[in-house]
Amino acid sequence: MKKPIYVLNGPNLNRLGRRQPEIYGHTTLAEVEGLCRAAVPEREIVFHQSNREYELIEWIHEAIDEGAGIVINPAGFTFTSVAIMDALKMFEGPIIEFHISNVHKREAIYHKSLISPVATAVMAGLGARGYATALIAMRDLLSQS
C-alpha cells in the first residue's frame, strides 16, 4: 500500500471563499480538498487545516512516520515559523510549498519564506485550483523515487 500525501494548510485558510476574494478567489477549503482528491484519485490524501502552529507541527511529525510527500500552504507561518521549518527538515520525502497568490507580487513582508529553503519545490500564484496542480506534481515526484 502506498503511503499517503499530506496536504497541510495554515492559518486563515479555513476562511477561503470569504476572505479577501480579490486575492484568494471564491473557492472554499472544502472545494480545495475535493480538487486535491480528484487530481490524484489513486493516492490517499490526508488533508488538514489549522490556525495553530503546534497542530501543523504534529501533522508534519505524523507525515514523517506515515507519509510519502507533503504539500504545505503554511500561510502566515511561511514567514515566521522556524518551528515548522525545523519539523519539515526532518521529512525525508518531497515537500511542495504552495501559495494561492503570487507572494512575490505582494508586500515585501511576503517575500522571505522560511519554508522555501527546505522545500523540494515552490508553487505560487495559481489560485486555489493550483492545489490540484501541486498534487499532480507531487504524484510525479513520488513516481520518480
From TrEMBL:
UniProt-listed InterPro entries: DHquinase_II, DHquinase_II_CS, DHquinase_II_sf
Catalytic activity field: 3-dehydroquinate = 3-dehydroshikimate + H2O
Residues that, per the record, bind substrate: N73, D86, I100, S101
Enzyme class: lyase
CDD domains given in the database record: DHQase_II (cd00466)
A Pfam family that the UniProt record links to this protein: DHquinase_II
Amino-acid biosynthesis listed as a keyword: yes
UniProt pathway: Metabolic intermediate biosynthesis; chorismate biosynthesis; chorismate from D-erythrose 4-phosphate and phosphoenolpyruvate: step 3/7
One MF annotation (Gene Ontology) recorded for this entry: 3-dehydroquinate dehydratase activity
Keyword terms: Amino-acid biosynthesis, Aromatic amino acid biosynthesis, Lyase
Site positions per UniProt: Transition state stabilizer: R19
Function as written in the Swiss-Prot or TrEMBL entry: Catalyzes a trans-dehydration via an enolate intermediate.
Protein name, UniProt field: 3-dehydroquinate dehydratase
Protein species of origin: Bosea vaviloviae
Lineage: Bacteria, Pseudomonadati, Pseudomonadota, Alphaproteobacteria, Hyphomicrobiales
